[in-house]
Write a structure and sequence with these properties.
The protein has one domain (about 1-50, about 70-115): 2,3-Dihydroxybiphenyl 1,2-Dioxygenase, domain 1 (Roll). It has helices at about 10-20, 80-85, and strands at about 1-10, 25-30, 35, 40-45, 70-75, 90-95, 100-105, 110-115. Strand 6 and strand 7 form a beta hairpin. The chain contains 2 helices and 8 strands; from the N terminus they run E-H-E-E-E-E-H-E-E-E. With about 120 residues, the protein is α/β, with parallel strands linked by helices. It is globular. The strands form 2 sheets. It has a 4-stranded mixed sheet, with helices on one face.
Length: about 120
Amino acid sequence: MTELVLWVDDLERASVFYEALLQLEAKVDSAGYRQLVSAAHTLHLHEIPAEYRSADVSGEYPVREDAVMKPVFAVASIADALRRTTGHARLGKAFGHDDKLMQDVIDPEGNLIQLLE
């Protein structure tokens, strides 16, 4: 099970993306916070206060490739997960190791995550 806290500029956009990608459902939804859950994952989204947000949250964020962590989410099918985002996922590199397939994905705010099949 993956459990992750993620601070975001645009709570609604991030929520829609992760709900689709990982088949999560909103369990808690309050001002500035949303908890998304499935049997395999729990994602806590916190909205960054307005005074600390990026200047422009409407455009495409640069990829945060220099982040010190990259969350990994196990999914039954990488192709199906990406299809559910209806084109809103930017793709990084794809590779395999042993019998596993991995796909780097960039979320709407430039965070680099990895799907593991």
